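If you are new to this repository, start here. Below is one unmodified record pulled from the training split, so you can see the exact layout before writing a loader.
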Amino acid sequence: MKGLAMLGFDKIGWIEKEKPQAGPFDAIVKPLALAPCTSDVHTVYEGALGERTDLILGHEAVGIIDEVGSEVKDFKPGDRVIVPAITPDWRKLPVELGVPAQHSEGMLTGWKYSNIKDGVFAEFFHVNDADMNLAHLPDDLTLEQAVMLTDMMTTGFHGAELADIQLGASVAVLGIGPVGLMAVAGARLRGAGRLFAVGNREITFKVAVEYGATDCIDYKKGDPVEQIMEKTDGFGVDHVIIGGGPATAMAQAVKLVKPGGTIGNVNYYGSGFDSHDYIPVPRMAWGSGMAHKTIRGGLCPGGRARMERLIELVRNKRVDPGLLVTHVKHGFEHVEEGILLMKDKPKDLIKPVIIIDY
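And here is the target side for that same chain:
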């Protein structure tokens, strides 16, 4: 089979590999829609995961099942499915500790695609524990909507969950790429009152307002911390979600959040080529460690139950993740172009999707 792979640092290309095999609890899936991610850019061009050679990229896919293992009960060949980016090993004892995304085989090992095994940018890809990691794709969701559930929506919403947003509370979302925009939507659903969206591009501000932002803050027009402090009479906000940006975003969040407030981080600090081994936390803004400012960070939840809950939000018109999709290409050969779009980030881009027509 053919797949788009990381050939080494700073280099991608098409390679041939053997088609994966399904174990008794697993499935093999053919892609119907794929979405390149900034994480792919971090992996290839910033050394976020270290050296990888001939590793097929990609972790955002919906597809059609090609084959299933003998013990798979709820899925069969021909079923259209949503495949979460995070696919824990649900049959391993550590999962019972309560953080499946982290405890499959160690920290972050629920994230398998293009991390510890070949990803989804291939003619066929493997899904472990199919009954627990796949969700049926309803006919009333578009492919563009569905593929946004796999990572962007679950990650952005997890930022709102980690920030523990309370009804009527003030919230700031730092970084409104596709994850941050989903964090805006998640914050609104959790009952945010005033909702600040920090970014720069007009296209993302437009979608942020549709998702519920009350104030759009352009970081190129001045320090976003100072801008939000001015608009809140110097008090800051109750909750901050970090959806993207450099390591300095954490410092901004600590400065912005009120004493007693919570920061939810779903930002992937993916730069691995430099010495940024530590995330800065400003001492005085943290009250010298005593300001009761809580920082929570996490890998987005995966698995079937999570996908089915997100499906219900879309089917019942609570949110439309399809608003993230600005570029649609038809044909498997456009996956490479999609990754380069995410790398270069033209002004009219939020998220590209590649549809595979059979």
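Two things worth knowing about this chain: DSSP finds nine helices and 16 strands in the chain. Residues 146 and 155 are 14 Å apart (CA to CA).
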